[in-house]
Write a structure and sequence with these properties.
605 residues; alpha+beta; Phosphorylase Kinase, domain 1; Transferase(Phosphotransferase), domain 1; seven-stranded antiparallel β-sheet; 20 helices; 18% strand; globular; disordered C terminus
């Protein structure tokens, strides 16, 4: 039942469409925007992925992550407030930073001028010095882990996600978690040579990663590109291509060269030494006439506009009622914000009917790989026509903005339905599950791997106009003809996860996610479908990213023992059904599927 998602005294906030407010996703879990009901403040809540709950090593690493970050209290570090558990789920609360990542800022507006880039780097150097005082190495300094916020007239950088932080104090027993994980830990494009070779590391490794990040800020891309193996090889043996930064002021280039030395002994040895060199380079850059003539206007603009919202930046399309997009979509209504972007209702002049417009976060334009992947998904989905799959019509990029044109639905989401009804009887849930199963099996037949099963992304569509408020509270037996539609672009959710915070369940296990190449999506889809059934019948699975839901299944008192066993089997990928339809058939064939509440349902009718 779609009640508030709570972790101890932290309540996960929701978007305008009712979905849980995700700030980012990573291998270890999901970060949500949440509200501390005790202190009455907004926090960032990091919840460990359910996939890792049965791993003692991962639990140790997660606990160490929070404890390491909690030791730091510094202007340029996101503070940790609380570490706790909710059932089997570990989480911690940290300072909510209302800004954007360096990565998102660069993708949105391009490279920074030397003054701004050096200023941000110097601030991060101060954070690394604070970490050094506690014997900590971050191990994953990169643009996506640096948040930018405005304080008065100043841009302030804050280091987030000390999830890979490692104590450099010899003999620390908690370090065993990292050592026993085995293999490289970090992000290869920004990792140091010694990190890639799995040698002992110290703060000089972070200085190298910060050097790569400085390069990214100045050039708009990392120094090395290619496959993962090629990137790692270049970090180990190939000099950075400084010819691409030939117009860089000499003092800035010299600092960057030393930060990116392959041998740690040739780099700056401490963050304090690095910060002093950065400040000297800043002073030289400001005093040099040639450098000043080359970049002053750019740097001034960077300081003034780096954190402006899209509505404040000139030259961008206005998304408001009455505006016509791409010469054919006239906006009729503003629907609100989602994790992927802003949603609107619009009239399509070519189709002569209403459509849903999803304006993606502006940072998407700077993500060439993401845009290309989304274009491929849209082209694959355009010809798909099935009553239980939401139609995908178009993907457009216009004047610094990208948007999707999707089929319009008259009705409501399943999230809205459960908010009105709290739970459904089995004879009501089965028709919804059956339609979803039909859509799932059709998608599997076409090899579609991006279905989204969040309650807010499952739409009940009525071909004929209905009175929404009355239908929401009426039993399904009294509904006019309807169709359940599944959103087929989980790709947009995955794209959104790194735009504001670096790196599920949004009531029903989030989505099955985008299918990796060569991986059978059937068990995941059926698991998501079973989770949907569990939610519709009044259950609440753990509010974390999916994966081990079946292991923590709590039988529904409203179902017979046989009915609970069917759900439990579908939730376990190892024992899953051959098809979604066979799962629903197994439920329909049970005698006494629902052991009570049918009488109360009949009375309400």
């Amino acid at each position: 039942m779609p009640e508030a998602i709570l972790f101890d005294h932290y309540e996960v906030l929701t978007r305008d469409d009712g979905s849980a407010y995700e700030l980012g996703r990573g291998a270890m879990g999901i970060t949500y925007k949440a509200f501390d009901t005790s202190l009455r403040i907004t926090v960032a809540l990091k919840v460990i992925n359910a996939t890792y709950l049965n791993s003692e090593v991962a639990r140790q690493r997660f606990v160490r992550e929070a404890r390491s970050a909690a030791k730091l209290r510094h202007r340029h570090v996101a503070s940790v407030f609380h570490l706790g558990t909710e059932g089997d789920t570990w989480f911690y609360a940290m300072e909510f930073i209302d800004g954007e990542t360096v990565e998102a800022a660069i993708k949105r507006q391009g490279p920074l001028g030397p003054a701004m880039a050096l200023t941000i780097t110097a601030q991060v150097a101060r954070a690394l010095n604070a970490a050094t005082l506690h014997g900590l190495v971050h191990r994953d300094i990169k643009p996506a882990n640096l948040m930018l916020v405005r304080e008065d007239d100043e841009i302030v950088a804050k280091v987030i996600d000390f999830g890979l932080a490692k104590t450099s104090v010899t003999g620390d027993p908690e370090d065993a978690a990292t050592l026993s994980m085995g293999g490289f830990v970090g992000t290869p494009h920004f990792a140091s040579p010694e990190q890639l070779e799995e040698r002992d590391i110290d703060v000089r490794s972070d200085i190298y990663s910060l050097g790569v990040t400085l390069w990214y800020m100045l050039a708009g891309q990392a120094p090395f590109a290619g496959s993962m193996a090629q990137v790692m090889s270049q970090h180990l043996s190939k000099p950075p291509p400084f010819e691409k930064l030939e117009q860089l002021p000499p003092a800035v280039a010299e600092v960057l060269r030393r930060m990116l030395e392959k041998d740690p002994a040739d780099r700056f040895q401490t963050p304090i030494e690095l910060r002093k060199a950065l400040e000297d380079a800043l002073a030289d850059n400001a005093a040099a006439p040639a450098a000043a003539a080359a970049v002053p206007a750019e740097d001034e603009e960077n300081f003034a506009t780096l954190l402006e919202t899209s509505a404040e930046r000139p030259g961008e399309t206005r998304f408001e009622v009455g505006v016509v997009l791409a010469g054919r979509y006239r906006i009729l209504d503003v629907l609100g914000k989602t994790n992927a972007g802003r949603a609107f209702r619009a009239f399509d002049g070519e189709r002569q009917g209403d459509v849903r417009i999803l304006v993606l976060h502006p940072e998407f334009l700077g993500d060439a790989a993401g845009c290309t992947g989304l274009e491929r998904e849209v082209e694959k989905l355009k010809p798909v026509q099935h009553p239980n799959l939401l139609g995908v019509y178009d993907f457009e990029t216009i004047e610094q903005a990208s948007f999707l044109a999707l089929e319009w639905t008259n009705g409501f989401s399943l999230l809205e339905l459960l908010r009105a009804r709290r739970e459904l009887a089995a004879d009501e849930a089965l028709p919804l599950l059956s339609q979803a199963a039909t859509g799932v099996d059709h998608a599997l037949g076409l090899g579609l791997g991006g279905l989204e099963f969040g309650l807010h992304q499952l739409f009940v569509h009525f071909p004929q106009p209905v009175e929404k408020a009355a239908i929401l509270r009426a039993p399904l037996a009294d509904w006019p003809e309807f169709v359940l539609k599944i959103y087929p672009l989980a790709f947009t959710r995955d794209l959104a996860s790194s735009q504001t915070w670096a790196g599920g369940q949004t009531m029903v296990g989030g989505g099955a996610g985008v299918k990796p190449e060569g991986v059978d999506a059937r068990p995941r889809y059926i698991q998501a479908l079973a989770t949907l059934g569990y939610e519709l019948l009044g259950g609440t699975l753990a509010a974390v990213a999916g994966g081990a839901a079946g292991a923590r299944y709590t039988p529904l008192s409203t179902l017979s023992e046989e009915g609970n066993e069917v759900l439990r089997r579908a939730l376990d990928p190892a024992r899953s059904f051959p098809s979604a339809e066979e799962f629903c058939t197994a439920l329909r064939q049970l005698d006494g599927l629902q052991i009570r509440r049918l009488d109360s349902h009949a009375g309400s009718a």
